[in-house]
Automatic annotation (TrEMBL), chains A, B, C, D, E, F:
Residues 252-264 have a biased composition (Pro residues). Binds 2 manganese ions per subunit. The keyword Manganese applies. Residues 228-271 are annotated as: Disordered. Keywords: Calcium, Manganese, Metal-binding. This is Manganese catalase family protein. GO terms for molecular function: metal ion binding.
Length: 293, 293, 293, 293, 293, 293
């Protein structure tokens, strides 16, 4: 169960409206790595969790915070849009380039669809998608997904930080940046704890019997490009992070195997085949006309 | 530049057709964490890279391999579909439940649209989307994204491994599982090397001045749920993985701040406002009628 | 701010697993009119509201409940999937039609992607989309959208009610049906109150100056089909619900006006035009070759 | 059957081109509540209707009109784009801010993809989606959907009305506004007639046996937020619009029920489980290796 | 303007219901090359046309027919769904595999969302998308798009023809197949006429000054794979279809040019760069902290 | 197998950065007819091919080239973005219209998401979609699709050619234009060769028995609009391009057949039906309550 309180975790008030910036903040609200994504992602990971206790408590505990972050951003965006231009006549657009420029940089749908409000979309107006959510039931994989989401997310707050000098906006962003710092650290720590406790290990999924994978190629770096320096990294020699092998470097791929011959499905799929087949196909179709009709 | 050779990196031939399984393999080909995703993701990360040398060589070297994996899966899927049922009359569907069942489990579009061929879609028929690709220009963030992609990807090969006992299919999957093992290890090693060399560090982005974030909340676990055990993890006390702080545990959130008052944009957005505003709004609209007309 | 408690508003436990039904319930969770939609819709309407007080309190109060409904459904789905088949060999699919049938009716991604878990998608696997959310800032329009959402939503619970006889599932559905009954009534009542208080009226938006619309056609039913009975309804005669006019019936449309001539944009868009234009276009292009090069 | 006449229902000619405005009008043509949506929605409702006569005649009669509205808007957009800038050199963009501003506010795809033409997309370039269409087979639900569509639609014409002073554009918009006024009234009247005739009633679907829903909570307003005024509305006390109950107000939710324990699906889904399970899982996997191989 | 008549161009009645087949027909109605696509495509091409007369008349004349085809298919689908199973209890699914199989092969949303009705989606439930429409303003390009659409479309009717033996369904399909035959012929004829009349020519767009393209590579077949037979086709030697050159065959690509060095955007994008740059970046960031704060 | 070489097929370097133009080039990279589409389309057609030899070699040979075109465009876009504005304060936006205009015309996600990099999206930010790919297994249909793709693609390079005067950009575009010229010619030649060799013919699919289609309407132009000139084209009289008939012109459609009566699915779908049915429905539901409970 979720409960709502009409308060914000942190102040979310700009010094002044800025409709162009309101569009940019949509990325942080409704983008691939925006707040809707992490809120829903931690929720689904919790609901799909197969183990009670601290890991699931963590997912619940942080997920509800993220729903509050959605709210702070939506509130901020609505205020940034408060003086959004609307009644701009064509003359103004053509004669006052500053006004025109603002029109060009704003999100048309924040105006026409939401009436100067926030929307569950990104900064290019793409609707938020359930496809952004990762919740596999395997916590080591999912905590890595979460670490990535918080890294991309902090990048996507840091960049717009420099696109405004509004102290109110920056105040909220500095709060979000710090929470992203926490969440990066947290998921990395949680992933490490999973491995230490033996609950999961590399490679994910760690319980898949290694004997069923093709161990000969399990630690080879195979270079399919002509870059000469890919062999200099620690992924090309030395022990592997999963503790189960040694990296090796293959400067160019072994010859492959011949591709199997093309398929010949039922002639009634009407694909293009070899000439002898064409005759056969025609015959088959004629036959088919008799049979099926 | 890319070059193609009419060979496969590994054998991709099923022992016998299985149209139901052909649908499942679409996930590994065209799903969120399928081969199209990693091929395109490593490509875009390389093209967006700001640093020449081993990291970019790595991206190019592995990216081209993944394009070949797309090909192996498409080839496999086409063969699994070779005997896909087509001419199933209604009676057969209703009288022979086995045939009917197979029809139910197959991908209708593999038949009708591709004529018993592979498609750039997932196992539910959702078209592959460019939104699956992450390429931020920040390599620590992106290598973490890649590690996650290879973890989810290996999970999504391991699960269908148990959904068939076709030796030919399993042979290919065992190869893909091993390459995913390599790639998990590789991206984790590459991320570690980035930190060791000082090219990037936690929190991402590490060059954003920490003084600009709200450091008071940068290492607090704040519990927005009532789970009692979230404080037991290593994310709740002790040094943080970024080496810059100490985790602390906040059992329940501090009181927030009052939300700002609702916004009142231009009356010509026709939003619903307070009654006094309604009068004003009507007056404004009347005035507007005079002015703008 | 949102807070979470590790409880459910109502019991969500099936009597036994049923992987086929787990797919159906995705519609109620993540479909166009599923619980994610109403939770997010009421949230965005509250955040975009321009008026404090009872209407916004209502949106907040009901929105948080809906987030809890998402949770109940996700929990139910995970349990329905608990015995989902996985290790089905090809022989089993072909020899045991019952098993095969179940495979055909299940959501492949619930298995492969979520590991027998719930997902933010509908019953055909389409990811939930932010485009499902309506939040215009105009409360009379939005409460009508909400009434519709609860009607479609209740239909979409009533239908699957008959697709199972699991008492545990039906117990949860009977709870959701009742809440949808409440919410239909509630939004209809709230819309009526808006009109009674004079905050909004028909036609929406009620403050747009009627003098600016083409009042001659504002209450005409114009019949563009040849159905003879469309004139029998109360939309074809008598007073209009907005209290501002009388319906009239136009049995077939007036002759229209001639369409304007086709456009002729810049020749460098390379559209197809009339022959004389073609010569001109070629000349222009030749000139352009001189000028721009 | 549909027939076309090369006329427009109303004049659709701007006084002068305006490429920035052409983008805005895409919302009215191809947005969630644009003309394509209502044309297709009324069509599908008619084709899915289960009852002949006035209601279906109404759907057909109005649906064909809406297809003509698509045409008027596409015609208008093409004319607004007639002088769209194309050969803008980089210097011009950097030196003449007015030209640059216009470039910023235009739809790049109207130029590059359609060659200065209209497209089936919204004002942010999102393709029109079949997911916008609601056609459930239940007319009371669907007429409410239609009333909402016409309300949102009229809002989305009223707002852009103030974004231009082109008399030709406004002339068309004033016509569309009036038709939306008619259609709001019409669907509200039709919904009322359905109830009066006893064909449908509240709550939708009205034939679902009420005894099967949890009547105890069918009329409770339960406040999941801390707003104090949600109890002041007519949704919190008094008779309900469906005429079957009395609203009541529950100031805060009852304690919930404990969530069921986490699920433990087949170990071959490789989810993360408790430590004892881990051992078991490993054993199971080992066994599996023997069995399945 | 569009007008509707409550008749069908051809009979659309199945001999008996078949819910599994109803899903397949969704491809022909709402798929990428289904009837909605061609109806909308011909409409947008007409509205974007820059030339009055026979070509635009053709687009209008055929476009309206296609809207009627949507209607025939929707009508057919609704009838095929008339006996769609609904009240299937869990026991029935597990004990009667025939019923279960049918459940597996049906479209869940046709049942739950549309109440046994047609939907604007394809056979996998993907909503129809405006992105399927091609309307560029260049008629030679667009008529080629149309020829392709009618070819893919006829394929997608021919394949399902063999998936049923219902005489009523086949009767409608035989009508649609014939119309697709006409439309393939028609668009090919229209494209030829455009070239004969000199309105357009190859390569499209034919008025782009050839002197501005890199003529050295305008007729070279360059072989980026190792297939030996690509040189045997008429695309590798002899005159080109545009009448402006001779094909030549390049057995393997010339060496390319070195890729430009990686980019170094503003340090505040926080991309990963070379180590010296890292120091600089840190200094820049420090400076930035002073400047911007 | 694919191999990568760190070279470009052609120089891809702009004379100077231009962030506004970088957005436009996204269309050529990631739009419906951009380079990702043709690369993937030729790949899937090859993998789905049913015939070895020159046609499949052609697909492989050209497909790999297109992957290299993706790379050239991504490289170009990154350079165009190298000086993309980021630290634009609100004052600058409001006071320097040139800077502001550039902000308005740029792709916000290239900045915030990719850190001044290229993305797999079009010029409006829509993610590239697998739905753009056509690969039916029928080569005559698919080569026509390819000819169309290269025509639309060359149009979409020709138009942006005039939107810049940067010599470096134009140099790359002139190369791409020439390759598109080649590819248009090539697919038209390949389609002709398929017909000459008898592998495929018109109408597609040519092996579908013509006796099964409704030959009476296979060559009729039926005019559903009132344009008088559609009968003047070569699609209205004379021999048909498939060589199997004669076009005829039908100035207006024959009367159609009556639509079948509305459907009456199971009452538990809760659709709206006739009044007698309503009673029945209620009775049925009551009965159902007894039976199913």
């Amino acid at each position: 169960m979720f409960f709502h309180r009409q308060e914000l975790q942190h102040r979310a008030q700009p010094d002044k409206p800025d409709a162009v910036y309101a569009r940019k903040l949509q990325e942080v609200l409704g983008g691939q790595y925006g707040e809707i994504t992490v809120a829903m992602q931690y929720g689904f990971q919790a609901w799909n969790a197969h183990i009670p206790g601290k890991y699931r408590d963590l997912l619940y505990g942080i997920g509800a915070e993220e729903f509050g972050h959605i709210e702070m951003l939506a509130t901020m965006i609505a205020q940034l849009l408060e003086k959004a231009p609307l009644g701009v006549s064509d003359d103004a657009v053509q004669n006052d380039p500053t006004v025109a420029a603002i029109v060009g940089g704003t999100d048309v749908q924040q105006a026409i669809v939401a009436g100067a409000g926030a929307r569950p979309v990104d900064s290019n107006g793409n609707p938020w998608s359930g496809a952004y959510v990762t919740a596999s039931g395997n916590l080591l994989a999912d905590f890595t997904a979460n670490a990535n989401a918080e890294m991309q997310g902090r990048l996507q707050v840091a960049r717009p930080y420099h696109m405004t000098d509004d102290a109110g906006v920056r105040d909220l962003l500095s709060f979000l940046l710090a929470r992203d710092t926490m969440h990066q650290n947290q998921w990395i720590a949680a992933a490490a704890e999973l491995r230490e406790e033996g609950a999961e290990d590399l490679p994910v999924p760690s319980n898949f019997p290694l004997g069923k994978e093709d161990r000969d190629v399990a630690y080879q770096y195979i270079n399919f490009s002509d870059g000469q320096q890919a062999g200099d990294g620690r992924w090309a020699s030395g022990p592997t992070p999963d503790g189960k092998g040694e990296f090796s470097y293959v400067p160019e791929p072994e010859p492959g195997v011949p591709a199997p011959p093309p398929t010949h499905p039922d002639s009634r799929f009407y694909g293009t085949t070899e000439l002898p087949n064409i005759v056969e196909k025609a015959a088959g179709a004629a036959q088919d006309a008799l049979d099926i009709e």
